[in-house]
Amino acid sequence: MGKNKQFRFTQNATFDHVVQPGYQELREDRFPLKGRWKEIHFERDAPIVLELGCGKGEYTTGLARLDPSRNYIGVDIKGARIWRGARTAMEQGLTNVAFLRTHVDHITSCFSKDEVDAIWLTFSDPQLRKARKRLTSDLFLERYMAILRPGGSIHLKTDSPVLYEFTMEQVERHGLLLLEHSRDVYAELVPRVPEQIRDMLNIRTFYESMWLQEGRKIHFVQFELR
Ligand SMILES: C[S@@+](CC[C@H](N)C(=O)[O-])C[C@H]1O[C@@H](n2cnc3c(N)ncnc32)[C@H](O)[C@@H]1O
To answer: Of 72, 168, 193, 196, which is least surrounded by CB within 10 A?
Structure first.
């Protein structure tokens, strides 16, 4: 492992706002924060929003800055990327931010029923060959159903037409409530939404900046499960 990565891993272990559950405690469903994030971790009764596959956590920290009334948790398996978001949160004095280093497959071992208020999926891998692995596949929608409160929404921002179309089909096939959708979020959605939403949509992630430079369109879907 490179020195830089090692440094980040070591520092992550010292950050109170980086949580790294062990495989065994998740497997045995005894992760102590499950159902108790507000009480134990954030020490305040405020809604929890997740960013799954958060990378460097631009959405987690960006939304937390825009909306101090909610708690934001970035989830990713890569510790060196999470470190960047954790540093940003610290440097900006954001107390409503945490990062959870785990596999998204374990999400129902980390949060309990109705514990989550909203979910953001930002530039997730479109899994071109394995649709069941997409973060809006039936498997994942079932998992979200187990942790998302009724009326909580899922936001997908992607450069992938395949993931966008797939998600739109999922919404239709399962009769989910479609709240917003656009194939070109900056041309179609950003100009017509209220300022507060616009600021949220305007957050640019690391991957998004790369795709925009390549001239790709950014797609967006927001829907509710029930
Ligand atoms: C294409 S990157 C997008 C990162 C960030 N959201 C952005 O837009 O810059 C996908 C991210 O998902 C994470 N990831 C992929 N599969 C994952 C999994 N099964 N569990 C947790 N994180 C995962 C990767 O580590 C990576 O940081």
So the answer is: 196
